[in-house]
Every structure is written in structure tokens, then in C-alpha cells.
Amino acid sequence: MSEKPKRATIREVAQATGLSPAAVSYALRGIQTSEETQERVRAAAEELGYEAHPIARALASGRTGQVGLLCGSLEDYWQQSLAVGIGRALLARDRYALIVDAGGDPERELALARRLRDQRVDGLIVQPLDPSAALWAELAGTVPVVSIGDALHGGQAQGEVVFDNRRGVTLALEHLRDLGHQRVTVFTPTRASTPDRPADVHVNAEAERLGLRVDVVVVPQSLAEATEVATRVLGGPGRPSAVFCFADSIAYGVYAATRELGLAVPGDVAVCGYDNHPMSALLTPPLTTVDWDIDGIVHSAVRLVVDVIDGKPRKRRVVREPALRVRASTGGAPE
Amino acid sequence: MSEKPKRATIREVAQATGLSPAAVSYALRGIQTSEETQERVRAAAEELGYEAHPIARALASGRTGQVGLLCGSLEDYWQQSLAVGIGRALLARDRYALIVDAGGDPERELALARRLRDQRVDGLIVQPLDPSAALWAELAGTVPVVSIGDALHGGQAQGEVVFDNRRGVTLALEHLRDLGHQRVTVFTPTRASTPDRPADVHVNAEAERLGLRVDVVVVPQSLAEATEVATRVLGGPGRPSAVFCFADSIAYGVYAATRELGLAVPGDVAVCGYDNHPMSALLTPPLTTVDWDIDGIVHSAVRLVVDVIDGKPRKRRVVREPALRVRASTGGAPE
DNA sequence: CCGCATCAGTTAACCGGTTCAGTGAACCGC
DNA sequence: GCGGTTCACTGAACCGGTTAACTGATGCGG
């Protein structure tokens, strides 16, 4: 432990090759030097076990090679998958992800966004709980910001991967209506009190259009709490014939509630989810859900943020379209 | 974007207070300065919106405030939970986690460990796929290493959170034996080819002791692939009456396989998992599994690594004991 | 053969903190 | 009243790279 594992510095490589440190710096990055010199430097570096010190590099160059990933709530399994995917994709591009979790709290989200900026991340990927916060504009002036899900208001983000949540809601509600349901309870995760979130607004508009009666119930993110709320709602009077959960994780809680209450899915209550987490296809019964092609989202978001960081111009806005996966939980044809 | 968001430096704060940069540095950390000076400096810093530059600080002090978290396989949902928990706990202690995923590949694990060290993390938490690799000793000489799960061979780690996997295996197999099963198939995730992993060895030893016939089948980490393998095994001739999955995630795949094959759980085949992921209690039927108290593990690991980094002496080894959660999937008394 | 650009490499400043050695003043006991 | 500490703070080196400005040599068109 106390032996100092002193590593070679760029000056030592310079000494070894008879070049200046600057030349070594250039050579190792393959610029402003002859092929031959680059080869010589590489050999010497290899010999000395030299590897550029990322901190020193970050300080001098102003780029840390790290991207902040600000998640709405990692209690949500789909968001966990998203985070894992983004971390993996960034690593493949030689960047590290700094993953932080707002835990569904919009204030915490903003505090963490500030912390990440102060940490000097090269870019920020955010799944905004509160897309209307003023902080986003300030942040976007400092560091490239890419949003996933809802677009930041005012279009300040350098990149956006937008979910067509209106379409997702329409798909789910139309499906339930087509199956003959008239009363639907919608379980939606805690959100910022932004009355203009497209998805939430759209639920009511769409319900009206389809002649559905909907009750919107806000549920906490954690599985245990979601189960509790669902048990209360489904066990109470006036039970709906169908529920639409705005996250598959919530649907998992609903499944648990139905079992506890002895209700059959979809016989007593049909359940439709949102996200299509890999688990959802494996449940009994398999969960009907709105699929968002997580790989495509990961790919778009990472590509956007990396390209902005690298100064490459790129299409700023990507809109993702959902697809309904009809499975047995709604009594539709099992997939 | 192109306006430079120049932030205040320590020299500006020094100028504003009439002190030297060194004094400001000390004052902000509350050392070697008078109370009054500290207050004055704090006020000036606030006024100027000064916040220490983490990169510069890291370069000068040699500590990055970042801890590497090297996961065995993030395909495994339990490990995802672990990673989320550790990230959260580190953040609460003002550190960032650099989460990377070996994807079940021992070679990749070592390569990533090296990358994290080169990134100058202050500490490393690792869930070793290959505890016998020579690299660990080298690494542990450079950076504090805390292992989770299996202990690193030779005891080089500065901290260890050891799972008593022998006990876990015993609990599961005894439970299945007590239920009258005589042939058990064990699904285990891909691992390093280390013949001396306690858990794997113990499966055979324990099976012999209990008079069980076991077949060990190695399955890939991903849900889809696990399902495929399970379908082949359970659909083939000589189907076992019980399976023991060395990870709940694998059990989820087995559930999917049984449904596909029209087998009843636990009627046709009993299923026992390992980990007790929160989802497992919500499945139909709820999954009997070996519980590892994830919060305790998170807490121990983070505490160990942070204390070692901070130079506080601390108990180096924590052994976690599992508990069997008997649920309906093995036909035991439902919880 | 001249003027100008390009190439390969050097020098020195710089990024923004931390820390070690040193300094003057106040304080202490006797 | 004096040597020895302690306290609060300063100056300068240092962490290990990157980069702007500059230099000398070479190449090229005309």
C-alpha cells in the first residue's frame, strides 16, 4: 500500500525519445507529427508503461470524458435498463457515465443536475421530471444537454430523444376500449407538478375522445409502495375493469395486488403497462404493454450527446414511436 | 454555447479577501486558519459563486472522489439493484460511482479493472468473476479494493463483503430435499473457469451429502438466452422435478420456459432462486429464493471502501449470511 | 531563385487547485 | 526578558498534461 506506484509521466517519455513533452503529447494523439515519430513515441510509451493521466488531461484540455446521466427514478426497472444500456454504450465510446438518480423528486433532479455540471461532465443526458425548469436553459449554456422522454421547454437542449407519449397513451387506451372496457384507472408515477406534461394531459383528452371514464392515481415509484396503493384502489369499491400503468414497474405492483386480492388478470381486471421491460413478457400472464425500443433510445441518446461533444453537427431531434405489444394481461390475443 | 461560462477561481477569491490562494484553500477546508478568516472566505466564495474545480483538486490532491464499481454482469437484475444501491450510497457520501459491466466475461472484467485504475478512481468495488486472477494483487497495491461475493484469493483486498454461498446452497438444496425431490437441475451463470469457486464446488459436495442427484447447467446471463436453455432442458427427456437457479434472473427465464412448455410450478417442477430480487415475491407463483439482504451488502461495501480511502481503520471482512425465503414456487408454505 | 505555405517540432504559459517549507507575531512558562 | 511553541498565513513548487505562438527546414509554383 505505502509503496508509491509511481507511473511514468509524459516528460519521461519525452526524455526517452529525445523529444519535447509537447511533441509526445501530439504524437500520442496522432497529430502534428510524422508517422515515424509517432511510432517511436508509441514504442517508448509502451516500454515505460506510460498511459496519459486522465485527470491531468482533463484539467488541461477541459474535457473529462465523462457524461452525466440523470435518471428520473431508478426505482423503475425500465429506467435501470436504460441506464445500464447507456453506460455500456458510452463505455464503448471510451467515456464513463456518471449515473445519478433523482428518485422521482424534481427538486433533487435540479440539485443533481447542478452537481453534475460542477463535476465538469462533458455532457448531460437527462430524463426530465420537470421539463419546464429554468435551470435547463442555464445548464444548456454551459454543457451539452440531451433530453430523453419529454423535450425540455424552449428547445434549449442540444439534442432530444422525444417519446411520442401521446401516441403511446392513444395506443393503450384504444386497445382497452376495443376490448370493451369503459372505466379505466390510470396509475402514473409521481411527477413534477407541471400541468402541461403532454402525456398526462393527453390521458384525459384521449379518454374523452374514446368515451372512457378514467381515474388518474399517482403512485410512488417503489415496488412495495406501488403494490400498496394498487391494493387499496383495486380492493376498494367501484373497482375498474382495466388499469393502465404508466410504467411496467407499476404494473408489477398491480400484479402483486391482484394476487393478494384474489383477482384474476385479465378476467377480473385487465392490465396494460408502459415501457416493455424484458420481464414483462415473462410474467404470468404476459403483460400487454407499450414498447419503446430501448436499444434505439440508448443508441440515439448516446450518439447525440457524443456528437455534440465532439462538435459534429447532427440531427438534433429524434422522435421515437411506440408500438403496442398485445399479450394476455388484457385478454387480447396472447403474443 | 460559445459564450464561455468562466467561473471564479481560487485566486479571485484570494484577491477579493486579500489573502493568498493557499489561505483560501485552507480556509474552505476549515483547517489552519482562524474561524473569522474562514467565515470571511466563505462569504466571498458565496458572493463570487466560487466552487472548487473538482478536476484541479483531483490533480493536485491525488483523489478524484470517484469509486469504480465493477459488476460481474448487469444482465442480472439483482446486480442492477446492487449497482443502483451502491451508486446511491456513494453519492450520499459525496462520491461518484463509475459503474462498468463485465458482462460475465472474466477477461473483460480484468481489462475493465485496469481501465478503472488508469482512470484514477480512489477505490474499487468489485464482484469478482475470477477471484484468483493475479491482477487483483497488483491492483490492490495501487488502489483500495473491496470485494463483494467471493473473496479475492490471497486476501489482498483491503475489504471484503463475503457471501456465505456454501450456506446459501445448503439452504436451497436441503429445502428441496425436504420436499422430497431427488433429482435437481442447477442452473448457474457463466463464470470463470476456476474450479475452486466455493459455491460451485459446494453444490456437488452438498448434493452428495443430501443424497441428491444434481445436474449443473451453465446458462448465459441474458433473460432471452436463459429462457432458451431452460426450455431445452425442461422440455427434454428426464426432466428434473426441481431446479435451483443460482440467480433469480435465471429463475425468471425458467418461469417463462415452464409457461411455454405448459408445465405447472411447483406441480410439475419446483423452482428455487438465489438473491431475492424484489420482483421475485411478486411473481406467480412467488419465488422461493435465498435472500441476501441487499441493503446490508450495499452499506457494508460502501462503508468499507470509503473508510479505507479515508484512512480510517476498520474491520476488513464482513461475512453475510443468507436466509431462505420459502414461497409458493417450491410448494412450500406460501409466505 | 524568390516568396510563401506547410510541416515537424520546441518553448513556455496555462489549467486550478494543494501542500511543503518558511515567516512574523503572539503567547507561554520561568 | 528570553528561548521555544503555536498560530495564521504566504510564496512557490507541483500535480501532469495541453495548446498557442513561434522557429527552422522543406516543398512548391512561377
Concise synopsis of the structure shown:
Chain A is built from twelve helices and twelve strands. With 335 residues, the first copy, chain A, is of the alpha/beta class.
Task: Itemize the secondary structure elements and their pairings.
Two copies of one chain form a homodimer.
Chain A: H1 10-17, H2 21-28, H3 35-48, H4 54-61, E1 66-71, H5 77-92, E2 96-101, H6 106-118, E3 123-126, H7 135-140, E4 145-149, E5 159-163, H8 165-178, E6 183-189, H9 198-210, E7 213-219, H10 223-235, E8 242-245, H11 248-261, E9 270-275, E10 288-291, H12 294-309, E11 317-320, E12 323-325
Parallel strand pairs in A: 1-2, 1-3, 3-4, 4-5, 5-11, 6-7, 6-8, 8-9, 9-10
Antiparallel strand pairs in A: 10-12
Chain A binds a DNA duplex (30 and 30 nucleotides) through residues 9-11, 19-23, 25-26, 29, 32-34, 37, 52-62.
Keywords (chains A, B): DNA-binding, Transcription, Transcription regulation
Domain HTH lacI-type (chains A, B): 8-61
Organism (chains A, B): Actinomadura monticuli
- Order of helix and strand elements from N to C terminus of chain A: HHHHEHEHEHEEHEHEHEHEEHEE
State the share of residues found in helices of chain A, binned by percent: 40-55%
Summing up helix and strand content along with how strands pair, one would put the structural category of chain A as: alpha/beta
Question: What oligomerization state is this entry in?
Answer: homodimer
How would you describe the shape of chain A?
A: elongated
- The tally of strands of chain A reads 12
Radius of gyration of chain A: 25 Å
Largest sheet of chain A: 6 strands, parallel
Strand content of chain A: 15-25%
Give the end-to-end Cα distance of chain A, rounded to a whole number of Å: 58 Å
Mean pLDDT of chain A: 92
Strand order of the largest sheet of chain A: 2-1-3-4-5-11
Largest interface: A-B, 45 and 45 residues
Q: How many distinct helices of chain A?
A: 12
Sequence stretches where pLDDT stays below 50 over 5 or more residues of chain A: none
